[in-house]
Automatic annotation (TrEMBL):
SUPFAM superfamilies: P-loop containing nucleoside triphosphate hydrolases. This is FtsK/SpoIIIE family protein. The keyword Membrane applies. Keywords: Membrane, Transmembrane, Transmembrane helix. Residues 233-321 form the FtsK domain. The lineage of its organism: Bacteria, Bacillati, Actinomycetota, Actinomycetes, Pseudonocardiales. The keyword Membrane applies. InterPro entries: FtsK_dom (IPR002543), P-loop_NTPase (IPR027417).
Length: 361
């Protein structure tokens, strides 16, 4: 009390300590439960060690193997074994670099990044990014599951806490990327409550892909035309048979490279007469004029000639539909002579410039 005014005491800022429930048990009950508690702790310790061995197989196997070898044979044989292992890994790298990276180096890198990057910082980053919550003194924190490093990216699997949505993680992608020293972060939903974060460290497509050798005409597969390489290092395949492919991008993004990669892969079949390639270039030949010999027919405008070519193609498609009605639904390369007709591929360089001419078609 100060004068005639009441002054509230300073609020207690500390959290009330949580007393374990077993503290209130009688002494004889604790004595009876002690063996069961010790057994439970032993089981938990074994489970933790098993999980550690699963998450760090290379480190655990190498450490245990080295310790056993040292105890059994001494230091000199251990050094010789390590040098032999290094030589074997070097030979493996020289013979098959891709296999060495996938089955050897990336596994070591996975364990290293999990141990030095994600595990030490996970709790702090989750708290500062406001992705963990406190409720009645209990912290709910997203669980770090599997980590897989592929050199240019780390795939981190996460289990969300209750009442959390992927949009909350999407809103914090930049925060997570900078927290874990990555260029960017992508969020993908695998199943309910399970996300996979892609932490990008490098651009795998920075180096140009070498032009592949031409295949034999009979080896051209219109269902799996290889036009490049994906960011995961796997071949990028397009299905051309019975489908349409739309390539969209800003100027300079590489749309032309996709087009000419398709033409390059079809070149053996075009030369053998198994594929007919026609094109429409409304830009006056700026795109398809680079290699007109690959096309059976090319129109360099979006006027009546382009419309006439499309009408000719439509008439041929209807004729084929009538011819093969009840016999085949879709053409393919390598049909017997009675059914053999060249597959028709139509390339339109710029669709936006071609649509005005078809407004009254």
């Amino acid at each position: 009390m100060k004068g005639n005014r009441w002054v509230d005491p300073a609020p207690f800022e500390g959290a009330r300590p949580q007393v374990p429930w077993w503290v209130w048990l009688p002494g004889w009950v604790k004595l009876v439960l002690a063996p069961f508690a010790l057994a439970w702790l032993a089981v938990r310790l074994v489970v933790r060690l098993a999980v550690l061995a699963v998450r760090y197989p290379v480190a655990v196997t190498t450490g245990l193997g080295g310790y056993v070898a040292y105890r059994q044979f001494g230091l000199s044989p251990l050094v010789i074994a390590l040098l032999s292992l290094v030589c074997a890994l070097t030979v493996w790298y020289g013979l098959d670099r891709g296999s060495f990276l996938r089955h050897g180096w990336y596994r070591v890198l996975t364990e290293w990044r999990r141990l030095t990057v994600y595990v030490p910082q996970w709790r702090t980053v989750m708290r500062l990014a406001e992705l963990s919550k406190d409720n009645r003194g209990r912290e709910y924190r997203p669980k770090l599951r599997r980590v897989r490093s592929e050199g240019w990216r780390d795939k981190v699997r996460v289990r969300m806490i209750p009442a959390q949505s992927p949009e909350q993680w999407e809103a914090r992608r930049d925060n997570l990327a900078h927290s874990f020293n990555a260029r960017s972060c992508r969020v993908r939903v695998l199943k309910p409550r399970v996300l996979e974060l892609d932490f990008i460290h490098a651009d795998p497509l920075a180096r140009p892909v070498a032009v592949p050798q031409l295949a034999e005409p009979g080896e051209v597969d219109l269902k799996r035309v290889v036009v490049g390489r994906t960011e995961t290092g796997k071949p990028w395949r397009l299905r051309l048979l019975g489908s349409q492919v739309l390539v969209v991008g800003v100027p300079g993004a590489g749309k032309g490279s996709v087009l000419w990669s398709i033409v390059w892969q079809l070149a053996p079949a075009i030369k053998a007469g198994m594929v007919r390639l026609v094109g429409i270039d409304p830009k006056g030949g700026m795109e398809l004029g680079q290699c007109p010999d690959a096309f059976e027919k090319v129109v360099y405008d979006n006027g009546p000639e382009a419309v006439a070519l499309l009408e000719e193609i439509a008439a041929e498609v209807k004729e084929r539909a009538t011819r093969y009605r009840g016999i085949r639904r879709r053409l393919s390369l390598g049909l017997p002579p009675p059914l053999h007709r060249p597959c028709l591929a139509v390339v339109v360089a710029v669709v936006g410039l071609g649509t005005p001419a078809l407004s009254d078609w």
